[in-house]
Amino acid sequence: MSVSDRARAIGERVEAFVRDIVAPYESDPRRDHHGAPTDELVDELKEKARAAGVLTPHILGDGDHLTQVETAYVLQKTGLSPLGPLACNTAAPDEGNMYLLGKVGSPELKARFLDKLVRGEARSAFFMTEPAEEGGAGSDPSMMKTTCRMDGNHWVVNGRKCFITGADGARVGIVMAKAEDVAAGGGACMFLVDLPDPAIRIEHVPNTIDSSMPGGHATVVIDNLRIPADQMLGEAGEGFKYAQVRLSPARLSHCMRWHGACQRAHEIATDYANRRHAFGKPLIDHEGVGFMLAENLIDLKQAELMIRWCAEILDTGDLGTAESSMAKVAVSEALMRIADRCVQVMGGTGVTDKTIVEQVFREVRAFRIYDGPTEVHKWSLAKKIKRDWKNAHGH
C-alpha cells in the first residue's frame, strides 16, 4: 500500500518544521534533573507547531484519524529530532492515550479529557506498571496488585505504580486497577482522572538511561483515590482488553518515531564520515566504516518495510499481538544496531552531547524495553508457534 497524497503533504510540512524549527532547540538548556525537556520548553515548541499547522498532525480537524499507514509516515517525520514528537504532540504516552480514548471513550469522556490532549493543552500518563519487588504487573499485566472497589457511586483505588511516564506534570491520567468484585473472579478496569490529585502521590522519579520524555518515569502511590463511576473507561472487567487496544498500535508508534531518530543519527554519522579524514583518506573510504553505514541503510529499509506491513494489517482491523510483537522485536533490534554503528563511526565525538547521536543511542536502548522487552515478545511468539502446531496436528 502506497502512502497517500494527503499523508505525504502533511509529512513534508512536518519534516520541514522538525528540521528547520525544532532541531535548533536540541541544545536548549531548559531540562529537568534527569535531562528531559521542561514543560516550558515543550509548550514553546507546541506553540510553534500550532502556528506552523503541524500540531497533532495525525488527527484531522474533524477529529478523524489518519490511517495507520499514513500515521506511520507522519510520525516517522516527527521523530527526526528527539524533540519533534513533543513539539508536534505525537509523543508517548499521549499519542497512545489519545488513540485509546478515541476508540473506547464515551462522548462525555472525550469532551472532558481527550479534546485538551488533541489540542496540545495537557499531557497525560498511563498508570499500569507496578513495582517488581512487590510482585506487581509488568510485562504480565495479570499480576496487577492495584485494586478498585465500589463505594456508593464512586470507585476507590489503592496501590503503587512505577515507571509511569510523564506522571510529574500530567493533567490527565488513565489508571488501571483490578476490581475486587467483578464477576468471574475480578477483572481489570480503567479510569480517567484529572491530575494532579492528592490521592496520587509521586514517590520518586528515578534517573534513567533515556531523557526525552517530560516528567520522567515516576513511582507513585495511589491512596484511596475516589473516582466517580462515570469516569470508568469502557466496561468493568475489560481493562486488559482495552490495554491491548492501546498497546498494539503504541508499539508501532514507538517504532515510527525512533525510526525517524535513527535516520537522523545516520545522516549525522554519514556527514561525519565524509568530512573526517584518517590515514590519508575520508573515513567513508575505509571499508570498516563504509560497510557500517551501508548496513545502516539496509536496517533502515527493512525496519521501514516492517512498520509499513504492520500498519497495513492494523488498518484492516485484524492486527493481533503476534504481528505487533514481530514488528516491535524486529524494528527495535534493527534501530539498536543502527544507533550503535552511528556512535562507533563517530568515535569519541559519538559519545558526547555534541550531536544527538549519543541520545538516540540511549533512547533506543530503552525502547527495547518499552511496551514489553524483546524476550517477552519472542516468548509470546513461541507460544503461538506451539499453539498453531497443535491446531494443525489435531492436538
Task: Walk me through this protein's architecture.
By secondary structure, the chain is α+β, with helices and mostly antiparallel strands. The protein folds into 3 domains: 5-91, no CATH class; 125-236, Beta Barrel (Butyryl-CoA Dehydrogenase, subunit A, domain 2), CATH 2.40.110.10; 240-392, Butyryl-CoA Dehydrogenase, subunit A, domain 3 (Up-down Bundle), CATH 1.20.140. It is built from 11 helices and 9 strands. The chain has helices spanning 5-22, 39-52, 68-78, 84-88, 94-104, 107-118, 239-275, 287-316, 321-350, 357-367, 374-392, and strands at 124-127, 147-151, 154-165, 172-179, 188-194, 200-204, 217-228, 277-278, 281-282. Strands 1, 2, 3, 4, 5, 6 and 7 form a 7-stranded mixed β-sheet that branches. A two-stranded antiparallel sheet has the order 8-9. The radius of gyration is 21 Å and the shape is globular. Belongs to the acyl-CoA dehydrogenase family. Residues 126-206 form the Acyl-CoA oxidase/dehydrogenase middle domain.
